[in-house]
Design a protein that fits this description.
Elements: E1 2-3, E2 15-19, H1 25-35, H2 42-51, E3 55-62, E4 65-75, E5 78-86, H3 95-109, E6 114-120, H4 124-132, E7 136-145, E8 150-157, H5 163-174
Parallel strand pairs: 5-6
Antiparallel strand pairs: 1-2, 2-3, 3-4, 4-5, 6-8, 7-8
The structure holds coenzyme A.
């Protein structure tokens, strides 16, 4: 599947999204280390790819180079974003948004009605992205992040299979596809 990000700068390219494979993990780890203060080890990705039947991970490429990735778990009607990141050199060009849409599409196609995630209280950028896609904060997990004892906001988006959400997604998607 290919979606065109709405260009914000000359030279922006399409994000080509495919399921994550073992050979991608090295490049994913490069972005992981630049994106999170507490990083997953490579083994966590391999385990997700091989041992977790509920897990679905994707990479996004521009010019054959991985610049984004994301993952979800889908458990019946519930889905959970486990990770999403864009290479710092490619942020602010709608690639995160395109990856989030891919995760939502996958969850909905697999029957999910709800999606949840945890996000650092200080992560205004990610929270703004999630709010744009209908996520709201439902609770706070105090001291959830052990590196600095930061709180996590738990955000949810619901009724993903409803006509209202379908329309919202269609409208947002139309700003990305030419
Ligand atoms: C969060 C992240 C994936 C967003 O990806 P991105 O490609 O930079 O974001 P996009 O260009 O797709 O922007 C989409 C929306 O995100 C929000 N956003 C993006 N950059 C922003 C900024 N600098 N300030 C405020 N909001 C911003 C906006 O809502 C934006 O929509 P808008 O332009 O219509 O307002 C990226 O910043 C990232 O990898 N961060 C580090 C990892 C991380 O925090 N992951 C989330 C963990 S919960």
């Amino acid at each position: 599947m290919k979606l065109d990000p709405r260009p914000r700068a000359a030279g922006d390219e399409r994000l080509s999204i495919a399921p994550m494979a073992d050979v991608d993990v090295r490049e994913v780890m490069r972005i992981e280390q630049q994106s999170f203060t507490t990083t997953w080890p490579a083994n966590a990705f391999y385990q997700e790819l091989h041992d977790n039947k509920l897990a679905h991970y994707y990479v996004g490429r521009v010019d054959d180079r991985i610049i984004a990735y994301g993952g979800i778990w889908v458990i019946l009607e519930d889905s959970h974003i486990t990770t999403i990141a864009v290479d710092p050199s490619h942020r602010g060009r709608r690639y995160g948004e395109v990856m989030l849409i891919r995760l939502l599409d996958e969850a909905i196609a697999r029957g999910a009605s709800w999606m949840t995630l945890e996000v650092r209280e200080s992560n205004d950028v990610a929270q703004a992205l999630y709010r744009k896609y209908g996520f709201t904060t439902v609770s706070t997990r105090r001291g959830y992040y052990s590196d600095n004892n930061e709180n996590a906001l738990v955000m949810w988006a619901g009724n993903l299979k409803s006509g209202i959400y379908e329309n919202r997604l269609r409208a947002l998607r139309s700003t990305l596809i030419e």
